[in-house]
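Proteins fold reproducibly. Look at a concrete instance:
___
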Amino acid sequence: MRQDRFLFHIRHTRTEPDMADDPVPVGIKTLIRRRLKQRPVLLAAGLVAAVSASALAVNGPLGGDDAAAPPAAIPAELTAATPSTAAGTKVTLVTGESVRVERVAGGQTVVSPALAVDSGQSPEDALADSAGMLTLALGGDVYAVPAAAIPHLGKTLDPALFNVSYLERAGYTAQPKLPLSIEWRTAEHGAVPGVTAPKTGTRTEGSIDAAGTAAFGRALTRNGADALSEVKKISLGAAPDAAGVPGAAPLTMRSAAKGRQSHTLTVNQLNRQGVEGTAIIAIQNLDNAETYYSIHYPTPGSGPIAVSVPAGPYGISAFIFDMNETGFDENLTFVPADVTVSKDTAVTLDAREARPIDVTVPRAEAEPMIAAMKFARHSAAGGSLQSLWWSYGPAVHEIVPEVRYFAKPTPAPRRGSLGFSHSWMFAPPGTGLDGTPQEYLYNLDFPSENGVPAKLTHRMTEADLAIDHTRIGTLNPDFGGASTMTPFHSWSTMTMGLGTPLMGQMALPVERTDYYGGSRTTVWHRGVATLPNPVRDGYYPRIYGPLRTFRPGEEITTTWANGPSVPAPEWQNMGLPHGATQATGIAKATTTYFCPACRQGDVMGFSVVSSGDSDPTHTTSHYEYTIHALTDTSGGPTSTINFYRDGQLTQVAAASGQVFPMLPGTASYRIEWTQTRPEWATLGTRVETTWDFRSSTPKKNDRLPKYQECTPDVNRGCSYLPLIFGAYDFGADLRGKVPAAGPHTFTVSGYYQRGVTGRQVTKAAVEVSFDDGKTWTPAAVTARGGGKFQVSVQNPAASEGSGFASVKVNLSDSAGDSFEQTVIHAYGLAGA
């Protein structure tokens, strides 16, 4: 049994982030995006899966014309809106798999499929019952299709059943049961496993609940077509909230050719055994993908693909594999081909012409935990098809077979371009699923922008690798963890994170050695989540580091999740490579970030996020701003932001990502942000932050780096606002604790977002409390220069007080602006 995932992306028209109405009428969130021609856009992925075209705020169109329309005026009446929740929206498919739709760094929307483990089911059984998932984006919607459903897609199973975007916006995800409409082959019939429906009638209405989806998914995986033998078609029932909601984007091919003679293009595919296999095949016109593209899913016995296409050059890209009743075998092959169609033409894609991809690492016992193979084929004048397949390896569990990838070496095409990569995470055998601490991980990426290279064998040595001594803490003994290392390439914005198969399964705290290698050009995005095990819905901290590359021989140490989460500017000193190659005119991928606190004319964009730990370069994504609930009677997290102009409260919001109108000329401003987190979060259970600053209408704009954008209008410039931020090094261990009953010193640092110059934090005052803020005692503070201050306190015995230290910090700078922050449960006392 192979546990695989497939990502497929077709470039589509750029759309905007969904904006849900904020219950607080005075909060403001308006983003004005570029007005683009009817061009497709690339998608980018983060943690584990595929990306949606909606909510993308990163890439220009393919091809030569990247000129933006004139800036749009800010509407006279700005309306309230709030970004999606940090935890995202959970969608359970009709086949039982769960996916979570969320926004991550760079503004992308990510769909993260998780290994579906039912109540009472072991992870090992879940692996045996799940043979993979296809994820694709069409028309701004994201589909997540389990591999067992692919042969039935558009036949017995309505594709809309797997359109997670539509399921969410039409209200299906809020219902305890999914309504179904079923067409039967006969009026008298039996039952479909897991589905509640009458047993008479050729068309009946039914439903399926959570337990039923698991039963249906198991039956489809184990029995295939037999599970649907009495059914003509299963479709979605009536939508709970369909009024005014756009329908599901159709899962069909697109052909926009006009005035050209058409011919029949026939494509045959053979697997490694020389017979028809299961395949994913993409066909596109290499002059312009908008002229023609289509995607096909042939299976053994389905015969050749025959399509009518306009005359011209075509690229054919295929993943070919074997599929049987129990899932996929260990062979996956990428076969590309180019053909000029001027008459009826036939092409055979033969997996036997491919070479094995062979990667080894210095530790002989290490085995692949996750592997991925990706291609991105761009047409010369516009449009691209990109897809990615990923597989679990034997490091996850002994029942998972060896990963066997193959690819056919192919030179750079004459029309357009072909990017190809294969990526690997190696780990100790059998440690990926049961929480066994992992001593090391190898993260390897081998990209090529110019076709499939002839060299597909890589023998990695210590000299080829960079080393990151990784330390991941935990703020709660009941927490598990997950980590991802995501490789990005300049020729593609679709990717996936190499990481933990089961969220919350990684034992914490952990100290391990992470190795990076393969290519110096790969831009890595590292992330860590610490969360309850098993995972509960709602808040849990997810932390991302800055984008970076690694050099062979480089050695660093990174500590994650050992301090409270406090407001911080998203920290980046690089973006993903972007631009355009003159040879093809193809726009490269990039990721942009909103300026954390900037002024655009007389409007302030406030996109401050929360830090993840004691390292200020570790932050949550800027689309995860915070949990946006003003109150929560169930003990969940809350957030309140008050905005003042010249002492008058003018706006209240429940999340960052706001637009605050400012006064012309010079005025004083205050922002108060109060955040609470569940008690099980342990540290930073309440954080109160106040910024006091003066600002004037800027005479000129600051020069922002190319990977950063202003808000609300990304087409216009802006100026940095010099808000002060605080960072803390409490000297805590990986459980967030320090020695009790004795003197203790820690460091407070005052700093600004990148780009602010001419300012320095010069003064600090600190108070400490050991009874959760009921009483406060001033602490001794010594300035160390550069905005750093050493704080000396006397910790009580762990049995005295609450067992935690809370701090109240006041910082001010040379211009008279100030910052005050109170952190309840800043660090714990050992023994408490």
